[in-house]
Design brief:
The complex is a heterodimer of chains A (554) and B (342).
Chain A (H helix, E strand, L loop, with lengths): L1 H40 L8 E6 L14 H11 L4 E3 L6 E3 L2 E6 L5 E6 L19 H12 L14 H5 L2 H4 E8 L2 E6 L6 H5 L9 H10 L4 H4 L7 E7 L3 E6 L12 E6 L3 H9 L5 E3 L4 H6 L3 E7 L2 E7 L9 H10 L2 H8 L4 E3 L22 H11 L6 E6 L10 H13 L4 E5 L4 H9 L5 E7 L6 H8 L16 H12 L3 H18 L2 E14 L2 E2 L15 E2 L1
Parallel strand pairs in A: 1-10, 1-11, 15-16, 15-17
Antiparallel strand pairs in A: 2-3, 4-5, 5-7, 6-7, 8-9, 9-10, 11-18, 12-18, 13-17, 13-18, 14-18, 19-20
Helix pairs in contact in A: 11-13, 12-14, 17-18
Chain B lengths: L1 H28 L4 H6 L6 H10 L6 H13 L13 H36 L4 H15 L2 H15 L22 H7 L5 H39 L2 H8 L4 H38 L5 H10 L3 H29 L1 H5 L5
Helix pairs in contact in B: 1-13, 5-6, 5-9, 5-11, 6-9, 7-9, 7-11, 8-9, 9-11, 10-11, 11-12, 11-13, 12-13
Classes of the chains: A alpha+beta (554), B mainly alpha (342).
């Protein structure tokens, strides 16, 4: 009896325990469901107020003054900072930004900026501004670059590569504060591209007050690592190689962005970025692969812009037989550029119709397009006196650039094309980039595969550096081509302010290039981006970094 | 029980001794300067090197050096990572909880599914159910985990868009790092998006945990099946049957409990296997755990990190072994008194 009592007790006990377990499980499940139910009813989903951008790499610095890499510009320039003036996205014209207006003297040597009032700098965990943006900040930002004795000029090996490349220091004599909201730039010589340079991603305004605070704390290097700017977003957290978290700048002087949080998810592997996009973990993805797949996907959009750049084959027009325009033309006819676009750019580029890309306002439809024709090439070669061809070399640039991702393979394709018309090509490669540029500058090449990437949309930024007489042989004109009529057209175009007049001059200049063929433009590479359809707003421009200012989310 | 405990502690002591000895000798066996390998200070100036040599008693005998190394370990001082230049102890404290969270969840899934299914197979021995379950278990056990992981991402993340493919939680949620266990941290945080974060973390956990759980889960099926079959042949089951107990009574009251004890014994042994699978899975799912960190360290030739990571990982596996042994002993009085070690 006793035994059976304890026995039945054990049964009850075990049943109770079992039930307790089951009940616990059921409660837990019910709790989870109720939680999810209460959350989905909640209209303030964090993901609806945030955008995740899967970027391709970590920024080298948080200050665009000190960098040139596209990855760093994407992460910083338009998100954290503003410039004095900027380019309008619609027509590439200069428009006010931190400066509400500006005035250029007639001789072009003095430019006065009248600054916007009430612009606030970021307030973050590491800095609280006590005053608004004013002239001191502009003077501070540019003196840092101009003055070698400035306390922020040479901290921790910092360089200013963009400003060096445009000879900023020899151009600007002085940056002068006239009053709290007026600044004057005095130049040593007039330069029509100066304003464009000030509107580029690199010419950002940083806070002088923050600089003073850091110098008191003796933490000068933080000025480029913990950024303070006036831009639409401010830095919350950065973990190298992992992510950047930006919060919206609540007191932004333009319209505040429609989101609260912008996260850069640093994903260097391109398949990883694609997976995250397809799985909905990224809203926007940099440099995607599998374009067709994305374009077909009902929930995704593929954005494309043709960047303002060009990859070209330049001839050394001082060396025979390339001083003969018929030979240059023959080679241009013999090269199958469509095949190059397919093989080298994987179709991610536009065939170059002229030196200027289609997105430039100075692009002219009238420019005659180079076609591929072996027959014409052979006829032209016989006309020039080389019916059996000749030997030549092609110097292939040893680094990868967007405008030419693989110059060596491109040279091999051209080699095969030219063999068909009897021209034997020797490919020169294997130099260090600096050495290569120097040797080409000295004119050691017969032809060279190079390219150009514009920093701002002014067409002069393409034509003068690549083909003007002034830069022939000493600067960036590696064709050593000097054409008087072409040159005077460029100068006339710079002297006038009328866009229509300039368009006419540039159209004529492009026609001369098409006839004389000092170089053969090959491709304008495109920049791709994929995004979820939920993300709205224009993010990509033809030049400069990605811009999240107008981003929104449905 | 005292005897049992002493035996285990004895085992713990010797295993730890051997582990530290191996880890210590690795710093000599890896290429490069031993002092740099053990401290991780790759860019040390000559002056710093002298200081380090003093710190690690570099010019004395191996025994002293080993003793000093042990002291460093007990102080939680593993040197700095050659790649990130952060103290390795900090990295491990940050990463180990994430791995534990993932592995324990996987273990839980494997047990809660594997063991009952194994019991069912044993009860339905030599019937269709048994054969089907056994076939599935064999298949599941034979699938390589990296392939399964990629396949799971392809199907559930990309095709069906149900679950995320990478990381522990969406980057949107700022969860302060307190314990390193994401779920505990979320519950501790005062974010206004706490429950969204909780849901998000859950959805991130499901896929990798299930991928890891597959292999040990199928193993548990087979273990549970064997254990149950053994138990069902025992005399007391026959006795219960002859006493006229119903089938359910026999199974629930006698068979399951006794079979479970034998399965639990193997859980600890499975844990090492589980961690290995978790390491690969962490790489596939970009899980910020110690396995991924260790594999990256191997790629980066970060000898200091490899050395310390191996030591910490193997000793934590060993602790789990000892722990399950104690649980087994607590559940099974017979084991406590057995004269020879388990």
């Amino acid at each position: 009896m006793k035994a059976s009592m304890s026995h039945s007790f054990a049964i009850i006990n075990s049943v109770m325990r079992k039930h307790f377990f089951i009940r616990g499980l059921l409660t837990a499940i019910a709790l989870l469901f109720s939680l999810s139910a209460c959350d989905s009813g909640n209209s303030t989903l964090l993901s609806a107020k945030s955008v995740i951008y899967c970027s391709e790499g970590s920024p080298a610095s948080f200050n665009p003054q000190t960098i040139t890499s596209g990855t760093s510009i994407d992460a910083t320039a338009n998100q954290l900072y503003d410039q004095l003036i900027s380019f309008s996205a619609e027509d590439d014209e200069l428009k006010p930004a931190l400066a509400k207006s500006w005035h250029v003297t007639r001789d072009g040597k003095m430019i006065t900026f009248y600054l916007r009032k009430g612009v606030k700098f970021h307030q973050t965990s590491y800095f609280t501004p006590t005053r608004d943006f004013k002239a001191d900040d502009v003077v501070f930002s540019f003196n840092r670059i101009l003055n070698p004795d400035h306390e922020y000029h040479a901290i921790a090996g910092v360089r200013f590569p963009f400003f060096d490349s445009v000879n900023f220091n020899s151009l600007v004599k002085e940056v002068e504060k006239i009053n709290e909201y007026t600044v004057r730039f005095k130049l040593n010589r007039p330069d029509s591209s100066f304003l464009s340079n000030l509107a580029s991603d690199y010419s950002v305004i940083i806070s002088q007050e923050y600089g003073e605070k850091l110098s008191k704390e003796n933490k000068h290097e933080n000025i480029d690592l913990l950024p303070i700017g006036t831009g639409p977003f401010k830095l919350k957290e950065y973990r190298a190689g992992s992510f950047i978290r930006y919060y919206t700048h609540d007191n932004y002087w333009r319209d505040k962005p429609a989101i609260e949080q912008l996260v850069f998810d640093i994903t260097p592997i391109d398949t990883g970025r694609l997976t995250k996009l397809l799985a909905g973990e990224c809203d926007v993805v940099a440099y995607p692969i599998a374009h067709n797949k994305i374009a077909e996907h009902p929930l995704l959009t593929l954005d494309t812009v043709t960047s303002l750049n060009v990859g070209y084959l330049g001839f050394n027009t001082e060396k025979p037989p390339f001083n003969n325009k018929l030979v240059r033309k023959a080679i241009a006819y013999a090269i199958d550029r469509d095949a190059i676009i397919e093989a080298i750019y994987a179709g991610q580029a536009d065939l170059a119709k002229s030196l200027l890309p289609k997105s430039s306002w100075a692009f002219s439809e009238e420019t005659q397009e180079q076609v591929h024709s072996i027959e014409t090439a052979k006829i032209l070669l016989s006309e020039a006196g080389y019916p059996d061809g000749f030997d030549m070399n092609i110097w292939a640039m040893p680094v990868q650039r967007a405008y030419n991702p693989d110059a060596l393979t491109m040279a091999k394709l051209i080699q095969a094309d030219l063999k068909k018309v009897g021209i034997q090509v020797k490919i020169e490669g294997g130099y260090e980039w600096e050495v290569f540029l120097n040797l080409v500058r000295q004119g050691n090449h017969e032809s060279v595969l190079l390219g150009w990437s514009a920093d701002h949309p002014d067409p002069d930024n393409f034509l003068t550096p690549i083909l003007s007489c002034e830069s022939a042989g000493k600067g960036s004109n590696n064709t050593r081509w000097c054409h008087k009529e072409f040159d005077s057209l460029l100068q006339q175009a710079l002297r006038t302010n009328s866009i229509n007049q300039r368009k006419i001059y540039y159209a004529k200049a492009l026609t001369i290039i098409a006839e004389e063929v000092p170089l053969l433009p090959i491709a304008h590479s495109k920049r791709y981006q994929a995004r979820s359809n939920k993300v709205t707003g224009k993010l990509l421009n033809a030049f400069g970094g990605i811009n999240f200012r107008e981003v929104g989310k449905n | 029980m005292l005897n049992f405990t002493i035996r285990r502690l004895y085992l713990l002591f010797f295993t730890m001794f051997l582990l530290t000895l191996v880890s210590f000798s690795l710093s000599f066996l890896f290429p490069g300067e031993q002092l740099v390998n053990i401290s991780g200070k790759v860019n040390a100036t000559p002056a710093q090197l002298v200081l380090l040599a003093e710190q690690y008693h570099h010019h004395e005998g191996f025994f002293t050096q080993y003793w000093i190394y042990l002291q460093h370990i007990f102080d939680g001082e593993f040197g700095v990572s050659m790649a990130s230049h952060l103290p390795i102890s900090t990295e491990i404290i940050n990463l180990l909880p994430a791995t534990m969270e993932l592995s324990l969840t996987a273990l839980f899934i494997a047990m809660i599914i594997g063991i009952p299914v194994g019991f069912i197979a044993a009860i339905r021995h030599k019937k269709l159910t048994d054969n089907v379950i056994l076939t599935i278990a064999m298949l599941g056990y034979s699938i390589p985990v990296f392939w399964l992981g990629l396949l799971a991402i392809l199907v559930f993340s990309i095709q069906l868009n149900w679950l995320p493919s990478a990381g522990q939680i969406s980057l949107l949620y700022e969860i302060k790092h307190v314990t390193g266990m994401q779920f505990i941290d979320i519950l501790l945080s005062d974010s206004e998006y706490k429950w969204q974060a909780f849901q998000n973390a859950t959805s991130h956990l499901i896929l990798p945990a299930c991928v890891i759980a597959l292999a040990p889960g199928t193993l548990f099926i087979r273990l549970a099946r064997t254990a149950m079959m053994e138990v069902l042949e025992k005399g007391y089951i026959r006795a219960a049957k002859s006493k006229g107990l119903t089938f359910n009574q026999i199974i629930y009251r006698h068979a399951i409990r006794n079979a479970l004890i034998n399965v639990i014994r193997h859980v600890g042994l499975q844990f090492a296997n589980l961690i290995t699978i978790a390491m690969v899975t962490e790489v596939i799912f970009s899980w910020p755990g110690i396995g991924r960190w260790l594999i990256e360290s191997i790629y980066q030739r970060d000898y200091t990190a490899i050395q310390a990571g191996l030591l910490v990982l193997s000793s934590s596996i060993f602790f789990v072994h000892i722990l399950t042994d104690f649980i087994y002993a607590a559940l099974n009085p017979l084991a406590r008194d057995s004269k020879h070690g388990a």
